[in-house]
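lol ok so funny story. i was supposed to be doing the assay writeup but got distracted and ended up predicting the structure for this chain instead. priorities right. anyway since i did it might as well share w the group, maybe its usefull for someone
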Amino acid sequence: MLDRVIEEWGGHEDLWLFGYGSLIWRPDFGFIERHPARVHGWHRALKMWSRVNRGTVDNPGLVFGLLSGGSCRGMVFRVPAADGLETLGRLWLREMPTGVYDPRWLDCATPHAKVRALAFTLSRRSPNFTGELSDERYRQIFANAVGRYGSSIDYARQTLLELRRHAIHDAALARLIQLAESHLSAAADGESPPSSVYPPASQP
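and the output, tada:
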C-alpha cells in the first residue's frame, strides 16, 4: 500500500495529510502549513481495535478510524515535497504496523481552498472494525487497555482536548469521555457508576 500511495502522490508536489485523531496533537513530522479542514462522506469514530499502540492482543484498546458516512472536521498538513518520502515512511511505521487502515486521497475543504490529502480510513469489513460497542464495553476498555503509546482513555482525552483547542466539536467523543470519567470516579469512591443519560455510543 505504501508503494501505491507513493506512486499516486508522484513526489513532484508537496504532500498533504489529513489528521482527525492523534495526528492533530502529535504529528511527529515537519510541515510548513496547517489548516482546519473538513471532509465529506467520512466521519471520525472510536471503533477500531488497537493491539499495539493503545492496547495488546490479549487486551485490545481503541483508536479512531475514519468511517464512511457523514463528515469530519480535522486538520490538514502540508509537507514539503523533498520530505514527503521520509514522512510517509515514518507514518507507515506509526499508523500501519499491521496494515489496518485503507489509505485514501480525499478532497479536504480548508478556509482557503480545497486540497487533496492522504487520510487513513477504515473499512467496516476490516477485522479491526469493532462494530457497535455497548457503554459497558467502552467502560471496560477505557479502564484497562494500555499499549506502547499509552492508554486508550488518555488517547481519547488528548484528542478531545486538541479538537476543542481548534474549536472542533465532537459530541460523540465528549459523551464517551464523560462516560469513562464517571465510571472511573465512581470506582475510586467505591460506588456503582451512574447510568448514562446520553444516546447510544454507536451514533457517529
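The two ends are 28 Å apart (CA to CA). The domain at 2-188 is CATH 3.10.490.10 (Hypothetical upf0131 protein ytfp).
back to the writeup now i swear
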